[in-house]
Amino acid sequence: MTSLRIGIDVGGTFTDLVAVDEDGRTVFAKSPSTPADQSIGVLAGLEELARRLDLSLRDMLARTERIVHGTTVATNALLERKGAKVALLTTEGHRDVLEMREGLKDDRYDLRSPPKPPLVPRSLRIGVRERLRADGSVLIPLDDASLADAIEQVRASGATSVAVCYLHSYRNPAHEIATVERLARELPDLYVARSSDVLPQIKEYERVSTTVVNAYVGPAVRRYLTNLERRLRESGLAGSLFIILSHGGMAPVEEAGRLAAATVLSGPAGGVAGARRCAEMLGIADLIPFDVGGTSTDISLIANGQAALSGARGLAGERIALRSLDIASVAAGGGSLAQYEGGRFRVGPESAGAVPGPACYGGGGTLPAVTDANLLLGYLDASTFLGGRKALDLGAAERVVDEFSARLGMSRDETALGIHRLINLQMADGIRLMTLRRGVDPRKFALLSFGGAAGIHAVEVARELEIPRVIVPTVASVLSAWGMLASDLRYEVSQTHAGAGATIDDVGMRRIFADLEERATARLREWFAGPIRIERSAEMRYGEQVFEVDVPLDEVAWDAPDLVARVHERFHARHEELFTYASRDQEVVFVNARVAAVGVVPSAGGDLVVTQPMTAPAVTERRAFFDGWRSVPVYRIESLQPGAAVSGPAIFEAETTTVLAGEGDRVTVNRYGWLDIALRG
Amino acid sequence: MTRAVDPITRSVVEHRLSSIVAEMGEAMLRTSYSQILNSSRDFSIGITDTQGRLVAQADHIPVHVGALPWATKAVEERFKDVVPGDVILMNDPYHGGSHLPDLTAFVPVFDGDVRLFWTIVRAHQSDIGGSTYGAYNPDARDIWTEGLRVPPVRLYEAGKLRDDLLDLLALNTRIAHDFRGDLAAMVGAARLGERRILKLFGEFSGPVVVQAVEGLFDAAEARSRAIISTWKDGVFEGEAFLDDDGHGRENIRIAARVTVRGTDVEIDLSDSDPQTTSFVNSSHANMQSACVMAIAYLLDPDIPKNAGAFRPVTVKAREGTIVWAEPGRPVTMCTSHPSDEIVEAIVKALAASCPDRAMAGWGRRFRIALQGEDPRTGRSFIWHMFHARPGGGASPAGDGWSSAGEWHTVGGLKFGSVEFAEVRFPLHFRRHEFLPDSGGEGQFRGGLGAALDLVVETEKPALANTAGDGARYGACGMLGGKDAPPHRYMLLSEGREPRMLKTKETSIPVRSGDVFEVRSGGGGGWGPPEKRDPAARERDLREGFVTAKGAGQ
Fold it and tell me: Molecular function terms in GO for this entry (chain A) (predicted)?
């Protein structure tokens, strides 16, 4: 038996695990998630995985070279507001940056909702006497007495975590470092996040908010990961444990604990990693991963084989300016409820959730959910849903839809179809906005359908957007855990260079990047002995514009004599791509230089080929609504041989998903057993 | 012959329309040139029908929304022979426009030979000619001083650009290159909307879309009426004041008499003070729009902003008053002032009718622009202050938002980073924090304004201008809640008497080392202060939102 790699994805309901050996043999396991302490579900899942490998847990872990883990500890702490009690030490006279939110408020017409309390209340935002100038020089030295007083306030408050963020510290971290050192001496048990460490970039709101989030989720993330690693070691793990970060790269436990704010999208990042791996296997450069769950649809973008990143994201209303995968969430899923109020018919954003769930789950739901409509239209089969493990209550679905359609003055079919159609529109709108904002045309992409509820909607959503092709991988539910195994190690550093932008020369620019490269490489070397690739990018803007454009610089010839001009030209070109024009006569301001050191990990051997047990006959028929009621063939996906071709209308079922193809759509089964659907022209 | 369209088709059409305006907005954002458009999003997107009824709009600028129908009506009146491919352009406040910077492009949408809709893009121009850059000129005494007036004109005739007309327009603005770029973006976005609507006709047919739209109007109207039916009937009065007109007239009154009867609301602004000689006059369309904005705030946030929603509302006013100036008067300030005061007077009046909906006053706009030379680079600069935002009003749901802005921006205007401002301009932000005690007291407290101590680090003398209001009148309290203190801006200069800044000043001399001591007011309080939860009072003191002195201790 050769050595193993294990991917672990903790989802809301299930923890999925996948083990791959050197020969590419792949084994899956699934266990219920345990939100209170995720490591319980993880350990139980590992036991199950070992059982499926015919090994003891200890033997399996002893042979495990690497575990890659996606965790939702930070996500949940932030969403449920169950993070640490945080104090903020900041420049005197500027302690409200966090709560001012740059003057912004979300809903323009909602003047009757009070603001949400900030993660750090004002009384715990403590001004320290010190001030740097914009060039990093000291205007007011760090005042000992003021700092001592601030630390005393922190002690008295009972805070368990501290964020330190001073103005212009991206230029000169000396005051922050001195503050952190003193904190470490006087309050050694506290978690400390320093802004010049977390996000050494200009713009105080983004920096302070990111640092505060880091301090808020940091203790929980560090506690969980340290605990998990200890238990794995005790159980015999000899290899390394890596955590997937929001940017899709992975890092060791210690680093994830330091940069905890970078783990808030750790979970969904696995899905994107899986999607990227699919793109690679299929040789498709441009793909839109489309993941439909019960309450929401997650949309991301893979362009030219790379997952789109964004520095302008946040979670739960908190700004996190670390670069992360650009994942848009639309409040539309299988549980979205139909509503009819004041003559207006809509679906969502309210969801039936897990309780009561759609009416057909038999939990007493009184409004029709999308899943109820799908059942009535014949798209789902009451007896084979989730491999027959959850029988659906057709009568309950009929009752709620009938009641609802009476209010609309429409028939049952019209109503169910209306619900199905409207949710498709909303999902399509989410994709349309995502692609528009990135300056790309969705028609050039293929849609990758995963997540249990995606298959019923994917083809119609694609049609709506004129996307010509839909791919449905089999066992999409373990895509995340599997995709993680293909992630690279990644360490990012950045440096602000605003202000001197107009005067930066080739030598200066090379120096900035060389310094960043050295730092990033040195850090990555501590975790990783293999080959390291450097990715350079920069954020730049025109003159007084208030937003920057992130410009990849990988294609710039770094030794060229006119480096600055070439970098500026990349910016103009990117600006043109995003905004349709460039202003080559305008001043270009170079704001942030960014370097990622990427530790390139060889792909887990082999492609994802999984055989599932057959639980039903290969082909059956049922009545379903495809431009009218008709009898439609229903195929078991696992019964289809590679190369098989089917014309729509047809329904395809597997244990965890159902896929619809419409009239004239052409479905072929690729060499991995996945569905590859060409939409009618 | 008209068969009512079913609710689902209606809903699909509604989604399509809102997706169309969203896409037009994204296109505008991506293709416009000037910063005010692509960074500050000071533009609006709408679709109207040929009667000027608003069909759909993208939620950008509340004060633009209610104005587009009037602009459409002016276009319809001027042109009876519109053909596909035409593009109409306008900005004139005396021809359906709001104020000169808001240039508006219209593209007609035909179903076969029948013209059904207009797609509209309205965008605030950074410059529109006139005697000063950017049109905000406290010294202006007529509209010609404020900028280039454009009545409805055909920029394109049946798809062909009238480039001589474009040359004329561009020549009369200071940054012709940006002007041309922005205009191309506006026309591009409006045409994109046209194409998408034509596709919608292909899907459902024009008549079905029109019927669906009628249904959407009816549904929105029904929702509005259902809400208004819960309001108390009666005749209610409210008033609000502008500090001054900058030309010597003070305490200019905006008066609203609002009659609620059943599900109808009549707003009568006829008793408002006479018009002035300065740019604080309102145009007719802007006044109408301010009334719609006030009602939109009082209805539910998610009510569709279409013509149906506002059918229950009628507006009366008198020409020659501050809210509806006679032709020729300057009006540039009107989209903020007196818009904010019109909203405040209406909400104040209706507080007696729908106390559980009326929110207290939001702050007023008071801005500083500084012009000088950066000693570090030797280059000249102009800096506009967006910092020190005023506070939002409290509401029956709770305390107000601090530093969230004015009635007309309501949290939609981002102020830039202090660090970036210090890097780019010779300025030192010594302090930029909430201003304690600046929120109006009440059962629910108004959001806080801000304190900014700004040190000017130029070497050569610089010049400052101000524009705005609210140095005399703070945001109003509601239903027993207290008014917020007004703005108080001082200029401190070594060896000179501190100078209290007025809201409409030009060419204020500023010397090296001078300090602007900016104290912006908060939002008004809601409900009697004695009803405030003691725990909330305790929190205010602990968090420093209120000082012991401010609490009267």
Answer: 5-oxoprolinase (ATP-hydrolyzing) activity
Q: What is the DSSP string of A57-94?
A: HHHHHHTEEEEEEE--HHHHHHHTT----EEEEEETT-
Q: How far is CA A622 from CA A503, A677, B311, in A?
A: 71, 21, 49
Report helix angle A204-234 to A38-52, nearest 10: 50
| Token output for B344 | 């405040």
Q: Tell me the C-alpha to C-alpha distance, in Å, between residue B285 and each of A285, A617, B292, B298.
A: 51, 69, 11, 20
Which residues have C-beta within 8 Å of that of residue B168, sequence separation ≥ 6?
A: none
Predicted structure pTM score: 0.93
A100 and B403: CB-CB below 8 Å? yes
Q: pLDDT digits over B265-281, tens only?
A: 999 999 999 999 999 99
Tokens of A355: 């309780």
ipTM confidence = 0.94
Residues of chain A contacting residue B11, judged by C-beta atoms under 8 Å apart: 344-346, 418, 422
Q: Give the amino acid at A73.
A: V
The number of CA neighbours under 13 Å toward the Cβ of A290 is 37
**Token duo for residue A359:** 């009416």
- In three-state secondary structure terms, B346 is helix
Amino acid at A179: T
A123 → closest Cβ in B215, B417, B542: B542
d(CA A632, CA A27): 34
| Owner of token pair 């969980």 | A224
- Tens of pLDDT, residues B347-386: 999 999 999 999 999 999 999 999 999 999 898 888 889 8
**If we measure between CA atoms, which residue out of A357, A324, A337, A345 comes closest to residue A414?**
A345
Residue A611 CB partners (closer than 8 Å, separation 6+)? A638, A673
Which of A249, A194, A267 has the alpha carbon at shortest distance from A9?
Answer: A267
Query: Phi and psi dihedrals of A385, rounded to 5?
Result: -60, 135
Measure CB to CB from residue A104 to each of B414, B423, B544 and give the nearest one. B414
Provide the token pair at B253: 């009154």
C-alpha dihedral, B539 to A164 to A159 to A228, nearest 10°: 140
Stretch A296-309: mean pLDDT, rounded?
89
Q: How far is CA A616 from the centre of its chain?
A: 35
CB-CB contact of B478 with B397 (8 Å): no
pLDDT digits (tens, 9 = 90+) for A494-544: 888 876 445 788 988 999 999 999 999 999 999 888 999 999 999 988 876
pLDDT at position A562, please?
A: 92
Chain A, chain B: beta-carbon pairs less than 8 Å apart: 218
Give the 3-state secondary structure of residue B117: strand
Distances (CA, A) of A38 to A10, A238, B61, B370, B397: 8, 21, 45, 56, 37
pLDDT of B1 > 50? The answer is: no
